[in-house]
Amino acid sequence: MSYPFLIQGSNITVIIGNTPHTISKTHITYERVKEAIKAGDWETVKDIIEPRKMVLNYGKGHVAIKGETLYWKDKELHSSLATRMIAMLQEGFPIEPMVAFMENLMANPSRQAVNELYGFLEKNNLPITPDGHFLAYKRVREDYLDCHSGTMDNSVGKIVEMERNEVDDNRNNTCSAGLHFCSHSYLSHFGGARTVIVKINPRDVVSIPSDYNDAKGRACRYEVIGEVGVDPEDEVEFTQPVQENATSAQAVNPTTTFPGYGAVPPTLTQAVSLNDTSTYEQRMWDQSVKNVPTQNYDGFNWPQSPMQT
């Protein structure tokens, strides 16, 4: 038994039955499919592309998955996050980072933040960390102070926080009070001289403003764990859906260590599917290397909110 296939450019297309399946070179299964084709192991090719359904029985913390239903504290939970976790477990991916993320997210007192955050991460290709936090970008001044007030130090290793009730929780107030974080797509819309990587606990997210296609957020606390662009060859986009820091992010002092990270920058040794919500033939992970756009701080027209940082 064999299947018609074509390897062209950065894609492999395999036709199983009457259905073509295209796997991008950036997809996690690409190398496995290619090696199985080389070995003539067509059963493995089919299993990778069309994995068999398994009867699921998983439990950890407050999360349980039975069959195709996820339970949170013994109650059925229907959400995009729950659907993704079930699909990942079905396909044999580890879901422990996702379980930790859900535990943290459910500690958030805002119903709106709980409902919106995971979709924001998927949409903007922002990864979660093994301990269930997530990573995002932030633009700061040359001296690492925040761009608006110039009073908050965003140097690598710093924890920046403010009272949660001082953060604007109205997503329709697009430029307002709070500790701002953003996606890669938003960087070109904001000034500042440096781009840092911030690690945020889902429980500390307050709102996802509705402008710029939902590409930014406001929180009450984050930790600065890295900086992109220190080395001219740095990649500035996250390249894995689960990672501890930007793949090429560097601290100002590369020998510095932080609790839970070791020497900066730590590298990812495991990856699971966070953003992959489509079928195999549609899965395309963007791992392109781009330069972070910059704007002249002195010439930028900053919003006037008194606490926007």
Oligomer: single chain
What is the gyration radius calculated from CA atoms?
21 Å
Uncertain parts: 247-309
Q: Percentage of helical residues?
A: 10-25%
N-to-C order of helices and strands: EEEHHEEEEHHHEEEEEEEEE
What proportion of the residues form beta strands (DSSP E)? 15-25%
Q: Strand arrangement, largest sheet?
A: 4-5-6-7
State the helix count.
Answer: 5
Gross morphology: globular
Q: How many beta-strand runs?
A: 16
SSE class:
alpha+beta
Roughly what is the average pLDDT, rounded to an integer? Answer: 76
Reported for the largest beta sheet, the result is: 4 strands, antiparallel
- The span between the termini is 61 Å
The total domain count is 3
Q: Which descriptors would you attach to this protein?
A:
309 residues; alpha+beta; disordered C terminus; single chain; four-stranded antiparallel β-sheet; 17% helix
Would you summarize the structure shown here?
The chain is α+β, with helices and mostly antiparallel strands and 309 residues long.
What does this structure look like?
With about 300 residues, this protein is α+β, with helices and mostly antiparallel strands. It folds into 3 domains: about 5-50, no CATH class; about 55-110, no CATH class; about 125-300, no CATH class. About 15% of the residues lie in helices and about 25% in strands. It contains 5 helices and 16 strands. It has helices at about 30-40, 40-50, 80-90, 95-105, 110-125; strands at about 5-10, 10-15, 20-25, 55-60, 65, 70, 75, 135-140, 160, 180, 195-200, 205, 215-220, 220-230, 255-260, 260-265. A 4-stranded antiparallel sheet has the order 4-5-6-7, covered by helices on one side. A 4-stranded antiparallel sheet has the order 8-11-14-9, with no helix packed on it. Strands 1-2-3 form a 3-stranded antiparallel sheet, covered by helices on one side. It is globular. The N and C termini lie far apart (about 60 Å).
